């Protein structure tokens, strides 16, 4: 396979791996490295372009990460031409470049942007070729470039300077995030950058399937390593697709373990068995452990503590199975999204703990899908000819309904109430053929009781929240707006339960919210 064409320097943005995802979507391979690892890599590699990511840092913070020392900016001619590779700074990356070349970066209140923003582009510039002059982008910044460096020009504006370029177009900066789907022309902008960089197409899903198989085989199929391989499956698209990829090459060595945590949705175990059979899984072990999970979580109402207690039981069960089958490896369908939010991707900060990320095992822990996003795994499932029930399935968190009892103890009664409410809402959406329009549905019990009236009598009961989101990569999302008749039907159906008094509909985008409540 060809050499890596794009180096992405990861400054800790929640969107960094989305840059890599979008580049792959455009057919170009990239490598993502934190600043401290860039210098060594550049000693042995010359990419066609370097992208500097956004960050949770401000350039004014003490200890804020700087440009890599070996980045070819100090040896640039006076006009700013870079002879080795093009450089594109995104958000924080643009601010670093501006400061490096002598511009100013300030914190003007009127120039701060979070979420959707309107920009006006200089469409004569090759970075914005073929793009409307005015378009909507996704921004998330408090710092802003207020004075351009010498020999740089502004090529886009919003409430301030939204993009800049040196006079020879070899050093570029964008204040907004072209990598996220909410920047309408973002992919086209990045395609223009690839064209400017002279990149060629070198990636496709079928190649990736073969790469995953080879990567795992190279580790587990050595002469001295004939142990079994444990794979945790949930019936969802990630673990099921991974099982379908590995089953043909691992054969009887692959043992798939599914856990009935007591927090699954209605009829989920039956669906899991059907999906794993479609994936060609021969060795499936289902373990019932609802009592263990509820006992360990029970009175905990803090989201992070709840995830931690779920992890304890999850790990214990898998350790038992590893010992039982004398396995030498555990494989999990962890995605880039999980790793990012767990703070395990490069320099990104922790948003929330994921039950299968960062655990310490006595055997080797493999995450073959660690650089992929949900939509990419769906493409792999299609390439494997898996049924629609798998690749179109909405995601469901590992801790399941335990995360949907919010601000109240996780009792069997509360879990069952949420389980029935989830089925009620799901059935209504299926009736109106709306499921295909929604990326994820969350029905949660809120720990907020309130007064209501039923049958002319006072009741004091539960509140439920219904949250439906639309997204491609689950790094950003927008709320799904139901029609009034759907809202009324859902509300009426849920409040028929004697203990449910109110129903709220949550339309908050991500960010600032996350997809799940916990």
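^ structure tokens above, recovered residues below v
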């Amino acid at each position: 396979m060809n050499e890596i064409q794009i180096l992405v320097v990861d400054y800790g943005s929640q969107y960094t791996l989305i840059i890599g995802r979008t580049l792959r979507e455009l057919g170009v391979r990239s490598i993502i490295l934190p600043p401290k690892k860039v210098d060594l890599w550049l000693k042995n590699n010359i990419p066609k372009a370097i992208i500097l990511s956004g960050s949770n840092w401000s350039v004014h913070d003490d200890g804020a990460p700087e440009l890599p020392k070996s980045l070819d900016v100090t040896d640039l001619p006076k006009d700013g031409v870079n002879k080795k590779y093009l450089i594109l700074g995104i958000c924080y990356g643009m601010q670093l470049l501006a400061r490096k070349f002598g511009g100013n970066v300030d914190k003007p209140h009127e120039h701060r942007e979070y979420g959707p923003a309107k920009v006006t582009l200089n469409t004569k510039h090759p970075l914005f070729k073929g793009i409307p002059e005015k378009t909507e982008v996704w921004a998330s910044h408090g710092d802003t470039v207020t004075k351009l460096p010498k020999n740089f020009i502004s090529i886009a504006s919003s409430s301030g300077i939204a993009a800049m370029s040196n006079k020879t177009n070899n050093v570029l900066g964008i204040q907004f995030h072209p990598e996220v789907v909410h920047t309408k022309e973002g992919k086209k902008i990045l395609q223009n950058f690839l064209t400017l960089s002279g990149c060629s197409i070198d990636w496709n899903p079928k190649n990736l399937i073969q790469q995953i198989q080879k990567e795992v085989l190279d580790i587990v199929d050595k002469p001295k390593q004939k142990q079994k391989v444990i794979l945790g499956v949930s019936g969802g698209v990630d673990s099921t697709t991974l099982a379908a990829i590995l089953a043909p090459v691992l054969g009887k060595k692959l043992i798939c373990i599914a856990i009935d945590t007591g927090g699954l949705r209605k009829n989920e175990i039956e669906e899991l068995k059907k999906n794993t059979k479609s994936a060609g899984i021969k060795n499936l072990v289902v373990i019932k452990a609802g009592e263990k999970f509820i006992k360990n979580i029970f009175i905990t109402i803090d989201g992070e503590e709840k995830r931690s207690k779920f992890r304890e039981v999850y790990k214990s069960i898998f350790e038992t199975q590893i010992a039982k089958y004398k396995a030498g490896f555990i494989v999990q369908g962890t995605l880039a999204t999980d790793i990012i939010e767990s703070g395990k991707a490069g320099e990104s900060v922790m948003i929330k703990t994921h039950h299968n990320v960062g655990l310490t095992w006595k055997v080797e822990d493999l995450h073959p899908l660690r650089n992929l996003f949900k939509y990419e795994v769906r493409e792999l499932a299609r390439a494997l000819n898996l049924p629609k029930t798998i690749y179109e399935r909405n995601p469901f968190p590992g801790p399941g309904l335990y995360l949907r009892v919010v601000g109240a103890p996780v009792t069997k009664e509360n879990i069952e109430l949420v389980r029935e409410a989830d089925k009620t809402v799901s059935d209504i959406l299926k009736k109106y053929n709306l499921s295909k329009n929604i990326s994820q549905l969350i029905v949660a019990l809120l720990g907020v009781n309130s007064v209501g009236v039923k049958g002319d009598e006072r009741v004091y009961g539960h509140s439920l929240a219904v949250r439906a989101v639309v997204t491609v990569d689950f790094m950003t999302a927008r709320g799904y707006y139901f029609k009034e008749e759907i809202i009324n039907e859902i509300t009426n159906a849920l409040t028929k339960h004697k203990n449910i008094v109110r129903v709220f509909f949550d339309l908050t985008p991500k960010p600032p919210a996350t997809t799940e409540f916990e």
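The chain has three domains: 6-197, 215-391, 411-506.
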